[in-house]
Structures are given as C-alpha cells and as structure tokens.
Amino acid sequence: MKRIGVLTSGGDSPGMNAAIRAVVRKGIYHDLEVYGIKYGYSGLIAGDIHKMELGSVGDIIHRGGTMLYTARCEEFKTLEGQQKGIEQLKKFGIEGLVVIGGDGSFQGAKKLTEHGFPTIGVPGTIDNDIPGTDFTIGFDTALNTVIDAIDKIRDTATSHERTYVIEVMGRHAGDLALWSGLADGAETILIPEADFDMDQIVSRLNRGQERGKKHSIIMVAEGVGNGFDFGKRISEATNMETRVTVLGHIQRGGSPTGFDRVLASRLGAKAVDLLLAGEAGVTVGIQNNKLVHHDIEEILSQNHQIDLDMYKLSQELSI
Ligand code: F6P
C-alpha cells in the first residue's frame, strides 16, 4: 500500500483533528502518501481530495472541530453514490481509507469494504455510543463541557433555590447525561436505557426540599424526550420554581481534553497500522486501556450498552 485517504463524517467531535494528525503523520512515518478528503462522503463523491504533508496537520492537535470539515451524505447511502466514491479513490490511486466518525459513518465504511475497498473506522462522536470501544473520541471533552455548564447553573440554582432541568445530547445514548449527572451529583438522571417513574422523581425532589436542599438538578438525555416537557411536568407536580436549559451544540465544540487528544492519537495511528497489516472492514477502539479492533459488521449489529451499575450508583448517591 502506497497511498491512503482520511475523512471525517457525521457530527464533528473534539479530538477529530488529533485523529487526522495521527493518520497523516503515522502514514508519512511509514512512507505512505496521505490524502485528506474534505466534507466526508460528499467530498469523496465530488473528488474534494488533497495531498497532506507533515505541515498540513501542524497546530491542530488542540483545536476542536475538524480541519477536513464534515457532512451527513444521503447520496452515499445509495449504490450509485458508493460507486462514485470508489471511482474517485481509484482516480487518486488511493488504496485504503480511514473514516473518522460515528455509526452512520461506519455504515459507509462497511459498504466500501463490501465493494472491495479496504476501510478502517475510527470512533469519533460525543455520544459514546459505538460498541467495541470503552470511549469514543470527543466524549470526554463534551462531558467536561457539560460539567462546566452544570457547575455554573448550580451557582444560580442555589441563589434562587430553583430546580433545573438540563437537557444534554447523546442521540439514543444516555452516557453524557449519566456521566455528567454522576460527576455533578444530580438528583435525577433520565436516560433512554432505563425506565423511570415520574411519581418517584417528584417524591425524591420533595424529600430533598423538606430536608433543606437549596436546589435540584435533573439531567435529561435528549433520547428520553424534550427537557421543556419535563420542566413543565415537574413544576406542575411540585411547588418548585423550575427552569430548563438545553445545552445544545456547545457540547460539540471546544479544545479537546488531554484524554481525547491521546485517545485520538492512539486510535488514528492504530488505523494506519491495521491498513498496512492488510486489515479491512474493522473498527478500532480502546477496551481496558488496550487498543483493539473488531469486525465492522459485528460492531454495527450490536446495540451500545450503557454501564447500568454506574446508573444504579448515581441513584444510590442521590438519595
Ligand atoms: O451524534 C452527535 C450529535 O451531536 C448527537 O448528540 C445529536 O443528536 C446530533 O448529533 C445532532 O445533530 P445535528 O448537529 O445534525 O443537529
């Protein structure tokens, strides 16, 4: 293999730049030519493909977003779109591809491999919802962004003795809500992976108020429903003054944490090693602090598992 490509696709996540840098630098270290494909699969179809040098990825390890830009591409879900992409890869003499993104991006990577084009998936999403890895690139940064926001909300919540509902991202996964809620001592954490009882939530809030709590924080994962609906239900069921904050896309930006930079560097470099070793159609990940890889089809057929012991702990600690 002499020439490889790299693209980012789907929702961006902090640390994607560090992963791009790792692919480019590890590739060049192994005497490969590395091409950056802009705007994900859309750019692949359009041939928006550029040779990367060592300096192309200088000064990006600490930046959020993705220097290659990203897109969600409907056309690449079609056979025609995939064929156009493969034609472009052939035109540029690219023999292997690293796709950095979430499960939608991995669907495209799987298709490319099925068409005979070696592709490796690197998990990059703030949702932490990819099986086969304990952490995805960007989750830790988003977690710390949410924690910072909750800390600030907590100050004003205490001053005004209010109850706050905070809605966080995660698509169908509750990891961001669970980890941030546990880290910030939230009274209640609502995640799609666990049932909840509104009456119990209300009596827990009332108990807290009776024993003199100055405020309450309720974390709602977006996969459970709309934060404003929960806020309304809580203010109707209690006598508490309730406010709702939807954190939104602030969770996707910002300088990646040290953890995400290191994770991205390790996973990006591992993807290049795997291409050179002749692997195709696999995703890289980290499990028990060891780099691993798994068959992409197997990963896409599994459901993400949240740590329910951690959920139980959050409930035990917020009695
Ligand atoms: O997958 C990342 C994510 O931020 C999800 O948490 C969220 O549901 C979705 O993307 C938002 O997508 P968009 O940026 O297209 O609104």
From TrEMBL:
**Residues annotated for ATP binding in this entry:** G11, R72, C73, G102, D103, G104, S105
**Where does the record place it?**
Cytoplasm
Q: Which residues form the Phosphofructokinase domain?
A: 3-275
Under Gene Ontology molecular function, one entry of this record is: 6-phosphofructokinase activity
The EC number(s) attached to this protein equal 2.7.1.11
Query: What does the record give as the reaction this protein catalyses?
Result: beta-D-fructose 6-phosphate + ATP = beta-D-fructose 1,6-bisphosphate + ADP + H(+)
Locate the residues binding ADP. R21, A22, V23, V24, R25, R154, G185, A186, E187, R211, K213, K214, H215
* Record-linked SUPFAM superfamilies: Phosphofructokinase (SSF53784)
| Keyword check for Chaperone | no
Which Gene3D superfamilies did the record assign? 3.40.50.450, Phosphofructokinase domain
Annotated InterPro entries: ATP_PFK, ATP_PFK_prok-type, PFKA_ATP_prok, Phosphofructokinase_CS, Phosphofructokinase_dom, PKF_sf
Q: What is its main location?
A: cytoplasm
- Keywords assigned by UniProt? Allosteric enzyme, ATP-binding, Cytoplasm, Glycolysis, Kinase, Magnesium, Metal-binding, Nucleotide-binding, Transferase
One cellular component (GO) term of this entry: 6-phosphofructokinase complex
Pathway(s) this gene product operates in, as recorded in its UniProt entry: Carbohydrate degradation; glycolysis; D-glyceraldehyde 3-phosphate and glycerone phosphate from D-glucose: step 3/4
Instruction: Provide the GO biological process annotations.
Output: canonical glycolysis; fructose 1,6-bisphosphate metabolic process; fructose 6-phosphate metabolic process
Tell me its cofactors.
Mg(2+)
Tell me the residue numbers annotated for binding substrate: T125, I126, D127, R162, M169, G170, R171, E222, R243, H249, I250, Q251, R252
Q: How does it assemble?
A: Homotetramer.
Q: Which family does it belong to?
A: Belongs to the phosphofructokinase type A (PFKA) family. ATP-dependent PFK group I subfamily. Prokaryotic clade 'B1' sub-subfamily.
This molecule's function is given as: Catalyzes the phosphorylation of D-fructose 6-phosphate to fructose 1,6-bisphosphate by ATP, the first committing step of glycolysis.
Q: What is this protein called?
A: ATP-dependent 6-phosphofructokinase
Q: Which species does the entry assign this protein to?
A: Alkalihalobacillus trypoxylicola
Q: What is the lineage of its organism?
A: Bacteria, Bacillati, Bacillota, Bacilli, Bacillales
What gene name is listed for this protein? Answer: pfkA
